[in-house]
Amino acid sequence: MTDSRERPPVASLPRSRREFLKLSALLTGAAAWPAVARSAGGDEPVRIGYLPITDASPLLVAHAREMFQAEGLEVAPPVLLRSWAQLVEAFMAGRVNVVHLLSPMTVWARYGSRFPMKVVAWNHMAGSALTVAPDITTLEGLGGRRVAVPFWYSIHNVVLQHLLRKAGLEGVTRRVRSLQPHQVGLTVMAPADMGPALVNGSIAGFIVAEPFNAAAETQGIGKVLRFTGDVWRDHACCVVAMHAADLDARPAWSQGVVSAIVKAQHWLRDHRGEAAQLLSNDGPGRYTPFPVEVLERVLVPDAAREARYIERGAIRHPDWRQARIDYQPYPFPSYTRTLVQMLQDTAIEGNNRFLTSLDPDFVARDLVDDRFVRLAIAQLGGLGAFGLDEQFERSETIVI
C-alpha cells in the first residue's frame, strides 16, 4: 500500500488544447506500440494510472485494500495524473498498464489510431453532472456562453451536445470571436481548472466527473443543472482498459487484475462511507485532494438532498432509482453500440473521419474483451451480486 506520508506520484505535463493536439498526433501514429509490446513481461507489476476523481474508485480501492495482492499480483503505487490526455499518453507509452479511460476515448484509441488495447470491464456508472453558474436555471440559459468539457472524446461531450440539441441550441467546438444566442461554445479543460474558470466567468458551466460537481456545490460557486445518469440511464462513464499484449500473453495475470477490480466494485456498493474516507485527502493513501465531506456527497446517498434535486429538475427520472455514482462491471454490448451511434452525431475537434465508417455491432464485439469480467462476476455469484438480472444484454434508455 502507499505509505501514508507520501502522495501518489504525479506526472507533470502540459494541459488543455495543446495537450489534446499533441495526443492527437500520437494517436495518428504508432510511436507508442513498441513500448506497449515490451510491457507484456511475465513479472510485470500492476501499474495503475488514474485521475483524482471518483471514476477511479475501484482501481484505488483494489490497491488500498490489497485486492491485487490477494490475487497473487505485485502492484506498484498508483500514478496520479492531471488530465485525460496525460493519462492516455502514459498508457500508450507503457508507463502504466491498467487505467480507467473515458469510454469514447477507447473508441478513438482503438479505431482512430488502431492502438492495441481493449476494454475489459466497466469501472462505474453515472458519476457525472452538468454544473452551472448560480444565475443559470435552464439549458437555454447557456445560449451565447461557454461550457467546459474534460475531453472531446468523453461521455460528457456526447451527453451535453445531446442536451443542447434537444433545447434548440448548437454546440460550437471551434473558437469564435462572439457566440450567437443559440450557440454554446464548447472548450476542453482539465477538470481541476473548471471550478476556477466558473468563478472568474470565463465559462458558464462545466460537465465533468465527480467530485468536481460536488466540490462546486459545497464551495457555493455552482449548482448541478442535470446529472448525466438522469439522461442516459445507468451509462458507463469510465471503463477499465488494458493493453491487448497483456491480455494475450498473460491471461492469468489479466484475470487477477480484473477479478480484483470487480471485487473492489462489489465492496464499494456496501461501503460507501468507508470508501469516501479511504479516498479522501485525509485517508491513508491520500489518493485524491478532496475532503471526505465532498466525497461523501457523491458516494453516500442522501434522501433529503435527492428530493431537492428532484424539486428543481436536476433529477427528472426519480423512478430510475439511480445512485449518484454506482458500480457494476459488465460492459453491456448495447451500450457500446449506442455509444458509437451517438459519437457519430457528436461534434468533435481533430481528425474524426474514422467514426463515420465504424459499424456499431463490430465495435461492440471487437473493442471489448469480456472473458475475464464474466469469470470474475461468476466468482461472486453472478450479476445478482450487483443488483442486476442474470442477463448479459440490456436495452439503452436515453430520455431528456
Commentary on this structure:
With 400 residues, the chain is of the alpha/beta class. Helices cover 40% and strands 14% of the residues. The chain is built from 17 helices and 13 strands. It has helices at residues 16-27, 33-38, 57-64, 67-70, 84-92, 103-112, 155-166, 191-200, 212-219, 244-249, 251-270, 272-279, 292-299, 303-312, 333-343, 360-366, 371-379, and strands spanning 48-50, 79-80, 98-102, 117-122, 125-126, 128-132, 146-149, 170-172, 183-188, 205-209, 223-227, 238-243, 325-326. The strands form three sheets. Strands 8-9-7-10-6-11 form a six-stranded mixed sheet, with helices on both faces. Helix 3 (57-64) crosses helix 11 (251-270), helix 12 packs antiparallel against helix 13 and helix 15 (333-343) crosses helix 16 (360-366).
Characterize this entry briefly:
The chain is built from 17 helices and 13 strands.
Summarize the topology.
Elements: H1 16-27, H2 33-38, E1 48-50, H3 57-64, H4 67-70, E2 79-80, H5 84-92, E3 98-102, H6 103-112, E4 117-122, E5 125-126, E6 128-132, E7 146-149, H7 155-166, E8 170-172, E9 183-188, H8 191-200, E10 205-209, H9 212-219, E11 223-227, E12 238-243, H10 244-249, H11 251-270, H12 272-279, H13 292-299, H14 303-312, E13 325-326, H15 333-343, H16 360-366, H17 371-379
Parallel strand pairs: 1-2, 1-3, 7-9, 7-10, 8-9
Antiparallel strand pairs: 3-12, 4-12, 5-13, 6-10, 6-11
Helix pairs in contact: 1-5, 3-11, 11-17, 12-13, 15-16
